[in-house]
Design brief:
Blueprint lengths: L3 H49 L3 H14 L4 H13 L3 H14 L4 H13 L3 H14 L4 H46 L9 H32 L23
Helix pairs in contact: 1-2, 2-3, 3-4, 3-5, 4-5, 5-6, 5-7, 6-7, 7-8
Subcellular location: Cytoplasm
GO molecular function: Hsp90 protein binding
InterPro entries: TPR-like_helical_dom_sf, TPR_rpt
């Protein structure tokens, strides 16, 4: 028959064994986590080397591998955003930049990455806002300051150019109509087609308005073309490849 001392010893041995097993499991988990982090960092470094060699597609694959191992690391999203930008995959570049901001809102790199994508697609107003938000986090960041200055300058030029398009169209229409009237008068043997001043005025107004309308339409086309750069690409392989909540699914 076991005495109280034997029972207490058994309980003590059980507790010690449980503690050892727990410590071993924690250590094993920590070692596994450390190895995973090392693998992710190795994949990231390989991606960085590819970027230095101007191989953004290969770099993108390495960064994606790093994200499979450590999907919560904002640096990997930031690096992959740049790789996507290099191959003009603006939709995915923007998603990764926004994912950086979501995971680390006080890190200026996310706002810089987002601004760079917006600059590449000529969304200068949006880029200005991104750079300003980044400067709220770090007012002394020289890269953001320079980028903001450039975005402001390009935004002014873009707006000025687009404002002029309908006017330039109207002027072109006016010149064209005057040339038509002059040609009509010069080639007419007996009587010009546009003999009355009212007819000439109608032609001038009609062509000028039509040309101004074309200028306005072209301006709308340019704006729509810029917006289309952020549309998701056609999915050729099924829903499993569509990004979900900012994370890219790969097969």
């Amino acid at each position: 028959m076991k005495t109280n001392n034997d029972v207490e010893k058994s309980i003590g041995v059980y507790k010690e064994s449980s503690m050892i097993i727990t410590l071993f499991m924690v250590a094993a988990k920590g070692a596994r986590s450390f190895l995973n982090c090392a693998k992710a960092e190795d994949a990231k470094e390989k991606g960085n080397e590819c970027m230095k060699k101007n191989k953004p597609i290969e770099a993108m694959l390495h960064y994606t591998q790093a994200l499979k191992i450590d999907p919560n690391n904002p640096t990997y999203y930031s690096n992959r955003s740049l790789a996507f930008l290099k191959v003009e995959q603006y939709y995915f570049a923007l998603i990764d930049a926004e994912e950086v901001i979501r995971r680390m809102p006080h890190w200026v790199k996310g706002y810089f990455r987002k601004g760079e994508v917006q600059m590449a697609t000529e969304h200068y107003e949006e880029a200005i806002q991104s750079y300003k938000k980044g400067l709220e986090m770090d007012p002394d960041d020289a890269a953001l300051q320079n980028a903001l200055s450039k975005a402001i300058d390009l935004n002014k030029k873009q707006k000025s150019k687009e404002r002029r398009l309908p006017w330039l169209g109207g002027i072109f229409g006016l010149i064209t109509s005057l040339m038509l009237i002059a040609a009509d008068e010069s080639v007419a043997t007996n009587k010009a087609i546009l003999e009355s001043d009212i007819a000439k005025l109608i032609v001038i107004i009609t062509i000028s308005i039509a040309a101004a309308g074309l200028g306005y339409t072209y301006r709308m086309f340019l704006q729509k073309e810029r917006c289309s750069l952020f549309e998701p690409p056609t999915d050729l392989f099924g829903d499993e490849n569509i990004p979900d909540n900012g994370e890219k699914k790969t097969s």
